[in-house]
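Copper homeostasis periplasmic binding protein CopC
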Amino acid sequence: MRLPSLAFAVATLGLIVPQVASAHTQLVSSTPTANATVAAPTKVELRFNEAVIGATARAEIAMTGMPGMANHAPMPITGFTARLGNDRKSMTLLLRRPLASGTYRVTWSAAGADTHRMGGNFSFTVR
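Structure:
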């Protein structure tokens, strides 16, 4: 009677352990932080829970709200340089000039060792 229970426990553990070992890439922090109100930044920093594959790392910045303009369509911010950190767990978006007052959304995607591309977004406001 105990043998089938033990076999079931081992089989269940075999299903769970690979899931833990192959955790997907997640954004663990950023500067500016999500929902923050900040002075005009000259860079945006993203930090991930694991090293990312450089060729898969992408980021976009869009202005989603402009003071004095209702119903503002998202406006892509272009001309920034994206650099991966030496540990490949961080990506810095270097802006040509500080961001103007408004609301911004950063959208990112990247894959880690498991090669599954993950992504997300966060917003912040520049005063």
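The helical segments are 2-21.
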